[in-house]
Structures are given as C-alpha cells and as structure tokens.
Amino acid sequence: MTRTASDTMPTGTTGGTPQILLSHHLKQLKLPTVLREYEKVARECAEAGVDHPRYLLRLIELELIDRERRTVERRIRAARFPAVKSFDTFDFTAIPGLNKMLVLELARCEYILRRDNIIALGNSGTGKTHVALALGLSACQKGFTVTFTTAASLVSQLLEARDERRLLKLQRDLASVKLLIIDELGYVPLSSTGAELLFETFSQRYERGSTIVTSNLPFEDWTSVLGSERLTGALLDRLTHHVSILTMNGDSYRLKQSAARRRNPSSGAEQNQATPNVDPDTGEILTP
C-alpha cells in the first residue's frame, strides 16, 4: 500500500488555520521568542531574499539568545542581591590601593572553576559590597549559581534552621551553590553557637565551592567577632588556603559626600534632587 505525504503528517497540521496551529505548537514546545518573532523575521528574510534554512537559523538564534537572557535573570533573582551592581559604575580611582587588574581578572570567574575564595578588607564605605555584588553579577552571567547574604543574616538563618530541624537541608543548599557571598563580617559580634555554625558553613564549602567575604576588620581582629582564637584560626586556615585578598582601605564615599554638602549646602541640595546619593556598600539611597 502506498503512503501519501498527508498520511505521515502529525494530526492537526493538514487542516485548520496555520497561524493558530503554529501558535499552539510553539507554546507547547516552549519557544516564545520564535512565536513572537517569526512573522517579522519572515518579512525581513523575504525582502532580503534569504532562503528558508537561514530564516530558520535566525529564529533559532533569537530563541537561544532570549533563553540565555531569561536564565541569567533567574540566576540573579535566585542570588537575592540587595541591588544589581556592575564594575561599569565602580570608581576605581577612589580606592587607589585596590588592584584593579586583579579585580577585573576575577570578574572572568576562573577562580570559581578553581574553587578559590576572595576576601575584601577595608573600612566602611569604600565599596566592598559593590565589588562583591559586581563579582556576583559576573558569575550569574557566566552560568554559575550565586547566593548573597550578610554574615548576621546567615547566622540568623542557620540558628532558625537548627531550631526548626532543617539545618542539614540549609547546609546542603549552602554547600552546593557555586559562589557564596557573605557580606559585612565583623559588623555584628556573633554568639558562640552562631560562630560555630558559620564555621561549619565555611568548612563544608572548603575546596568544594568559592566564597567571597567582605569585612571591615583586619584578620587579627576577627577573634572579636567569632569569640574564639581557636575557631578564628581554623576558619582563616580554610578560607585563606586558596584566596585573593582585595585591600580596600580609603576615604569613605559617604564621608566625602557629607563633607561636600557641608562645604556647599545649596549645591548639595541641587545634586541630591538631580542624582540621589547611593551607598556603594549597600546600594541604598542615602538621605541628606
């Protein structure tokens, strides 16, 4: 028995309105960009005399580009950044002691493949959080999973998880993320239990994933936060085994802005109306 072309076609492709059926099939295949762009690209290709394979190639490339964009956006949302920051808006000239070449090299994210760590040390207001956020954004764009938290918030989450008997799950989640960013270590002293849980987090990630830590304290003062020389020594031993240290001491952006407003109140008021002052560490708008 001879089979005709119509016998081999899937049900629904030989009848009905083509646009409606195509829309249905593209939704089923989860190709929203092809659905949105196919008519426009068809007109452009017809005008340019582009053949069918190249027309199809253009559509598929658009779908892939848009799919990657949506994937990056999901990673950024999952990271829970307090603000999205990049190095395009970071003023390297304000922190002359910072190794710009090293920072830009780290933005390539090869340290994540090596499971190395980064520690940014410096006084308050010098942009440590901005650098951490920009590195986190670069990691999301290059396909790595990222989680951002402050040290105080992380310890609170760990204590709460322990009390609710879900500590092991939280620890597994923290250990599995490719890049964990712990901001503001040193701003709030930790309880002995909190310090031990934080140490466990670092220990479980040792040589398994990369961690970025920002702190306003030099290493010799970390004992005042962790409350134990033994614990501090063990933590630093793991954290600094494979590490890049960014020294970010300098004048605070916030102090500079405050001094500028005092010197010229009227100009400062106008500047505040035109462009809000933004805290480089938190991304929050500063009120005068």
Question: What does this protein structure show overall?
Answer:
- This protein is an alpha/beta fold and 288 residues long.
- The protein has three domains: 18-75, no CATH class; 87-247, P-loop containing nucleotide triphosphate hydrolases (Rossmann fold); 253-286, no CATH class.
- Helices cover 55% and strands 11% of the residues.
- It is built from 14 helices and seven strands.
- It has a five-stranded parallel β-sheet. It has a two-stranded antiparallel ribbon with strand order 6-7.
CATH topology of the largest domain: Rossmann fold
Whole-number count of domains: 3
Q: Tell me, what's the shape?
A: elongated
Helical segment count: 14
> Which runs of at least 5 residues are low in confidence (pLDDT < 50)?
267-278, 280-288
Which range best describes the helical content: under 10%, 10-25%, 25-40%, 40-55%, 55-70% or over 70%? 55-70%
Strand order of the largest sheet: 2-3-4-1-5
CATH homologous superfamily annotation of the largest domain: P-loop containing nucleotide triphosphate hydrolases
How many strands, which pairing sense, and closed or not: the largest β-sheet? 5 strands, parallel
**What is the first-to-last residue Cα distance?**
86 Å
Count the beta strands. 7
Structural class: alpha/beta
Quick summary:
With 288 residues, this protein is α/β, with parallel strands linked by helices. Helices cover 55% and strands 11% of the residues.
Helix-strand layout with pairing:
Layout: H1 5-8, H2 18-28, H3 32-48, H4 52-79, H5 100-106, H6 110-114, E1 117-121, H7 128-141, E2 146-150, H8 151-163, H9 167-176, E3 179-185, H10 192-205, E4 210-215, H11 223-226, H12 229-239, E5 243-247, H13 253-263, H14 265-274, E6 277-278, E7 285-286
Parallel strand pairs: 1-4, 1-5, 2-3, 3-4
Antiparallel strand pairs: 6-7
